[in-house]
Amino acid sequence: MNRRNFLISTAALSAFSAFGKYGQLIGGITSPGYDLVAVKNGSPGTMLEHGMAAMGGIKTIVKKNQTVVIKPNIGWDATPERAADTNPELVGRLVKLCMDAGAKDVYVFDNTCDNWNKCYKSSGIEKAVKDAGGKIAPGNSESNYHEVEIKQGKRLKTAKVHELILESAVFINLPILKNHGSTRLSIGMKNMMGVVWDRKFWHRNDLHQCIADFATFRKPDLTIIDAYAVMKQNGPRGVSLDDVTVMKSLLISKDVVTADAAATKLFGMEPEDISYINLADEMKVGRKDLKNLNVHRISL
Q1: % of the chain residues with pLDDT over 90
Q2: Contact between 133 and 96 (Cβ < 8 Å)
Q3: According to the model, what pLDDT value does residue 7 have?
Q4: Cα 38 from Cα 50, distance rounded (Å)
Q5: Has domain 3-299 been given CATH number 3.50.50?
Q6: Mean pLDDT, to the nearest integer, of 115-144?
Q7: Chain-centre distance of CA 194, in angstroms?
């Protein structure tokens, strides 16, 4: 690890310990009452296993015979080490957990930026999903998207949303934490842009407000933020491996705003630095203030 990456990783560990006063630096304790679980120093799959155990287990989210949709970031034709897309090991392990919980079907998709076939393959996510018994669904056809009303939206009043989001019983949001040129950070709420058809409207009409508006429509049942490898610059696609720092961290919360707020601290920022987090907090989508939350920290 070079000096720059070491300093960033050290800062991330300091931020990790600042999420809340109730955290414990041990694993293996199970409680469904945590507002946020933060895990560090393991492989993506292992951190997920420990994190979900601390949240009370996947069966608190996924019931037998339910249809589950998992939305990772698969937007870019890039290999896993580039950290442009969600880690494939993490995606595959989550699919397996859902299947083991008795899910009828587990679908994974994204409305990609690059060619969807190449994104699904290069990211390693397609193989990981299929190996775990899940189903890969395309996100490149407008016919799969249906117009809905965003009743609480201030700028975003309607949107065409992928039918899997509309029809599935469980929606799990699985973004990767990374730098973004338009929003500074791409995290949980930003990741949900990949479930709508027309993202150009958002960019033309106050992107941050549109992100917050859409979060009022369908809140994820669970948000899991991949911070194993983090793109610190040149996001969202990245330029080279020099953009990436290995942090070996994972955040889990039922509140997407809380998850995003915690992720800003891992990145070395504050929730107040990201406009869509502030707007979502003001619109009562979730809670950005991490003080006095019941936070569980696990160091593997």
Answers
A1: 88
A2: yes
A3: 39
A4: 10
A5: no
A6: 97
A7: 11
